Amino acid sequence: MIPSDGSTASTAQNDAPVGAPSDGGEALVSVRDVTKRFGDGPDAVTALSDVSIDVPAGSFWSLIGPSGCGKSTLLRVMGDLIQPTDGSVTVGGRTAAEARRARDYGMVFQKPTLFNWRTVRRNVELPLEIVGMGKDERRKRAEVMLELVELGDFATKRPGQLSGGMQQRVAIARALSFEPSLLLMDEPFGALDEITRERMNDELLRIWQRLQTTVVFVTHSIPEAVFLSSHIIVMSPRPGRVLAEIDVDLPYPRSEDTRELPRYFELVTEVRETLREAQQL
Amino acid sequence: MVNKGLRATLNVTGVLVVLLALWEGYRAAALALGNTWPGTDVALPIVVRGSGNADQFPHIWDVAAAFGRPYRGGGELLSSFLLGELAYTMREVAVGFVLGVALGFLLGVLFRQSSLAERGLMPYVIASQTVPFIAFAPILIVAVNQVEILPVWMGVAVLSMYLVFFPMTINTLRGLRAAPATAEELMRSYAASWWTRLWKLRVPAAVPFLFVGMKIGATAAVVGAIVGEISAPSSEGIGGAIFAFGRATNNAVQLFATTIVAGLLGIATYLVVVLLERSVLRVYEGKRS
Predict the structure, then answer these.
(1) What pLDDT score does A120 carry?
(2) CB atoms within 10 A of CB A26
(3) Cis peptide preceding A253, ω within 30 of 0
């Protein structure tokens, strides 16, 4: 149902990180002993404590945990949007700041954050404009990206005229338009209803396999994390740290049928029980 | 649409009719009562005296008719005299408004970029508006007129600018801060320069706020120009005419007529900005197609 013939071919390569130990693949992102404190003195809040993870190139990793576990903070540290108090982040051998300046990051937030004074197509063109791509080329690229998220017919509409799910697809097209090596997604489907969310999950996997990018995905939905990810980081709150890492050994490409596999339910249960432990800590 | 426009016109006309009726009603009552509260010899707040040109509280139709009559014993009609003065004042308003909007916008951008500049300069910007501007209007105008390359009306235009820039600064600054945090993060993730952030995110996000500043500034520009003309030694423009008619004892009709022109100028200036806003927002919100 979901993958086209073109993306099936790339699946073999994307299978590689699946089931492999997390330190087995070539790490694109290395987070080393990252601690983040907000504020000073007795009022200081430790959002992250000694977090170390290695995200292999081409993989799909999810960060899951209860509110306040620092998963969004970790994502922002990885994207050089906030600075860690301690520790370091490297992306493809570069520091996070260098990676950001080299435009290695595509970001998608819970709110689509589209500019309503631009048409849908010109929203997708925004990063291309900033990178300095010529007018004709970026227009063509934006149209290709909109086709990819199946919104080609909405290029001249304003974002406000689109549904929430469509807006988020535009945001994904925008994030991928300049071919960043790393896609950072902060609860991108958190505001959508369950049916739309599952459709978006299918679409995201299809796009990910087509473009072979690396994704770090923040969510608090267990089924979403299991369905999408090759690897799940379970985090605990106060202070945020890595509680467990779970490899998701479900084969790609995944589809509606994947959600009915016994192994899928086992993994959902495993993540749920790990999270319950986290709550009791 | 047509219905809505018609209703608005009827509303405005209705209010106008009520105001005119109140005016004439008060005038008739004051004359009937002999200008005192009934049964006392305490004077009414506004005394209606005499008739014709020397009347301190003239009939509406006398004021209207004054436009078509010579304004001082023969010669030029009041309406044509006021048109000339209006043109003079409009130039000051236009220049003062444009300068004030530009200055206010630049200060807003400066304060958005540099909190050091905001902390250092904002207290002075606020202080500049707490000083009663009528008090130093003559000083400012004379000072500007010292600069010989500038035309005489420039002094009044600068005073007008002085009233315009403040609401513009405040609203620009608010607008430049209106973009959501994630939009700023997005621009940061693209490693966008401050210039790019300014023109591709902050200024577009500020557009509705810029028009709030401009609408307040439009009426302030007219107030500044007319007060400036009243304080200026040259006594030109609508303000100059108000000053001249107000000083003489038998010019009430002309004074009221000139004041009406000043009021119309204020409304017209405001409407120009509203029309500009409408056409800009139509493009901004993509409502053309």
Answers:
(1) 96
(2) 10
(3) yes
CB neighbour list of residue B158: distance below 8 Å, 6 or more residues apart: B96, B99, B140, B141, B144
How many CA within 13 A on the CB side of residue A38?
12
Tokens of B62: 């006398």
DSSP 8-state secondary structure symbol assigned to residue B113: H
Residue of B nearest to A131 (CA): B190
Q: If you compute the radius of gyration of chain A from its CA atoms, what whole number of angstroms results?
A: 18
Q: Please say if the pLDDT value at position A134 is more than 90.
A: yes
Over residues B105-114, the pLDDT tens digits come to 999 999 999 9
Please give the structure tokens belonging to residue A241. 């740290």
Q: Which residues have a Cβ under 8 Å from the Cβ of B260 and sit 6 or more positions away?
A: B63
Q: Tell me the chain A residues in contact with residue B187 when contact means C-beta distances shorter than 8 Å.
A: 130
- Judged by CB atoms closer than 8 Å, whether chains meet at A106 and B189 is answered as yes
A130 neighbourhood in chain B, CB within 8 Å:
187, 190-192, 196, 200
Band of residue B50 on the pLDDT scale cut at 50, 70, 90: low
As a whole number, the mean pLDDT across chain A is 87
Provide mean pLDDT across the span A154-158: 94
Is A158's CB within 8 Å of B186's CB? no
Task: Indicate yes or no: CB of A103 within 8 angstroms of CB of B286.
Answer: no
Which pLDDT belongs to residue B1? 54
Strand duo A86-91 + A94-95: pairing: antiparallel
Are A214 and A29 within 8 A, CB to CB?
Answer: yes
Q: Give the position of tokens 């209106």.
A: B178
* pLDDT tens digits for range A208-230: 998 889 999 999 899 999 999 99
**Subunit contact A130:B204, Cβ cutoff 8 A:** no
pLDDT value at B285 more than 80:
yes
**Three-state DSSP state, A166:** helix
- Give the C-alpha separation, B155 to B149, whole Å: 12
Whole-angstrom Cα distance, residue A204 to residue B79? 72
- B131 pLDDT tier (thresholds 50, 70, 90): confident
Residue A36 parent element (H or E): strand A27-38
**Tokens at A145, concatenated:** 């990206």
Cα three-residue angle B239-B242-B247, rounded to 5 degrees: 130
Q: How many residues does chain A have?
A: 281
Segment A250-266 mean pLDDT: 92
- How would you classify the pairing of strands A241-247 and A86-91? unpaired
User: Helix, strand, or coil here: A218?
Assistant: strand
Tell me: pLDDT of A149 over 70: yes
Which residue from B182, B189, B191 is facing A111, i.e. has the nearest CB?
B182
Taking a C-beta distance cutoff of 8 angstroms, is the pair B100, B160 a contact? yes
Going by C-alpha positions, the residue among A77, A73, A47, A22 that lies closest to residue A187 is A73
Band of residue B161 on the pLDDT scale cut at 50, 70, 90: very high
